[in-house]
């Protein structure tokens, strides 16, 4: 099983790019918990901490596709490193000045979120030029999804470690410094410096002019809603079954399931078009959310949380392939960044929606939301099946007929049946 992953990591520059991207994304991945801990240490309320975390999240959702388009236009080093430095400086200003005055605090956090570099989309744009073979790139997408699960599990632990060693302010500063170093490691690498986006058609919609990409984004909005609603429902469950420790176990179970599922999924080559396979994966994802409504005892609930996460990383990895197939020429970084934004917005919406549902109907109805959102995602994919298939075929034909020598920097594989 590990052979395919080891082959990827042994490829020139692959391990450096993956590690640098993960380290560079640490400020983004840990922003919510780091902000909450810092604001509370400064004497601020949970409400203020939540609002500041929300400001960061909204700014980040806006900034990712905008910066992604700039990367496609001007290259990675010119955009990624300056953005990382600006984001870190803004967060440093917030860490030094604190929450007073509030307008300055909101502005600093917003700037930090807005300029968080689109390293995630940038890495996925680099994989084809680093690995070349289609099956290797698809395995790398799965490895990418698995690595994300590890980062989002280890990130909060790293924050608490920094706080225990120093304090909340130092944790914010250290994590953002690490983010700059990670971005620097990526952009000075030969693949990043050499990468150029394919020639693009000037269009104000950019990547969003692809109807297939829009269909995928609509479906993944509801996958994000499912994931966001689980976190709130899990808090409600934990409140009645042991508190924060139980909540931690539920989230760890969810991450463990995603890690296991993504590892197995990426270890083999899959036959058939990825658009069809994604429908199956989303159906399985929705089905695995339904047993959570049983709300059994803690041990059984943790096991169910593991099961509920199994198909999350495979869905994300499969979506990466589809994004690459549907993104218009010259918009690949922007397209991947839109997927990040859509998923983030969906998760935030799920968190906001689950609160009133749990308040009105209890924990059981809170856990009904993920299954319902997963079902809606499947319906979107089924309803847009012709659009996804038609535009995918068009992308393959366009890639095959492209003779520009720069096209090699952003290859599209002509075999639509390997993923």
Automatic annotation (TrEMBL):
A GO MF term: transmembrane transporter activity
Ranges in a coiled coil: none
Instruction: Enumerate the spans annotated as Major facilitator superfamily (MFS) profile domain.
Output: 212-419
Q: Which InterPro entries match?
A: MFS, MFS_dom, MFS_trans_sf
Q: Where in the cell is it found?
A: Cell membrane
Lipid bilayer topology: Multi-pass membrane protein
UniProt superkingdom:
Bacteria
Q: Which GO terms describe its cellular component?
A: plasma membrane
Q: Where are the transmembrane segments?
A: 17-39, 45-67, 79-98, 104-127, 172-192, 213-234, 246-266, 278-295, 301-323, 335-358, 364-383
The keyword Membrane is assigned to this record = yes
Q: Identify the keywords attached in UniProt to this record, alphabetized.
A: Membrane, Transmembrane, Transmembrane helix
Q: Can you name this protein?
A: MFS transporter
- The organism is Streptomyces lucensis JCM 4490
């Amino acid at each position: 099983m590990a052979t395919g992953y080891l082959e990827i990591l042994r490829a020139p520059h692959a391990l450096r790019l993956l590690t640098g991207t993960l380290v560079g994304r640490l400020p983004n991945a840990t922003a919510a918990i780091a902000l909450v801990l810092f604001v509370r240490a400064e004497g601020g309320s949970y409400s203020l901490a939540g609002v500041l975390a929300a400001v960061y999240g909204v700014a980040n959702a806006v900034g990712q596709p905008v910066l992604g388009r700039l990367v496609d236009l001007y290259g990675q080093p010119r955009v990624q490193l300056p953005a990382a430095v600006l984001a870190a400086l803004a967060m440093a200003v917030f860490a030094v000045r604190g929450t007073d005055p509030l307008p300055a605090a909101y502005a600093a956090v917003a700037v930090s979120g807005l300029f968080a570099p689109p390293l995630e989309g940038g890495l996925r744009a680099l994989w084809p030029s680093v690995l070349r073979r289609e099956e290797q790139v698809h395995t790398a997408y799965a490895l990418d999804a698995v690595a994300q699960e590890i980062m989002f599990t280890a990130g909060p632990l790293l924050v608490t470690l920094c706080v225990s060693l120093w304090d909340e302010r130092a944790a914010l500063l250290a994590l953002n410094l690490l983010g700059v170093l990670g971005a620097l490691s990526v952009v000075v690498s030969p693949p990043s410096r050499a990468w150029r986006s394919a020639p693009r058609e000037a269009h104000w919609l950019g990547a969003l002019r692809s109807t297939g990409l829009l269909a995928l984004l609509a479906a993944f909005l509801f996958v994000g809603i499912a994931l966001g609603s689980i976190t709130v429902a899990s808090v409600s469950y934990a409140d009645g079954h042991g508190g924060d420790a139980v909540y931690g176990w539920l989230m760890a179970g969810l991450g463990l399931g995603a890690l296991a599922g993504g590892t197995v999924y990426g270890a083999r080559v899959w036959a058939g078009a990825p658009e069809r396979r994604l429908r199956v994966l989303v159906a399985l994802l929705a089905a695995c959310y339904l047993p959570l409504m049983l709300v059994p005892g803690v041990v059984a609930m943790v096991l169910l949380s593991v099961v509920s996460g199994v198909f999350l990383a495979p869905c994300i990895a499969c979506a990466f392939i589809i994004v690459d197939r549907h993104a218009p020429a010259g918009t690949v970084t922007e397209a991947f960044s839109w997927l990040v934004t859509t998923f983030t917005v969906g998760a935030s919406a799920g968190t906001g929606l689950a609160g009133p549902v749990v308040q009105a109907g209890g924990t059981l109805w809170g856990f009904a939301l993920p299954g319902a959102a997963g079902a809606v995602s499947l319906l979107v994919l089924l309803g847009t099946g012709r659009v996804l298939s038609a535009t995918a075929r068009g992308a393959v034909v366009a890639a095959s007929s492209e003779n520009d020598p720069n096209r090699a920097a952003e290859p599209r594989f002509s075999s639509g049946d390997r993923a």
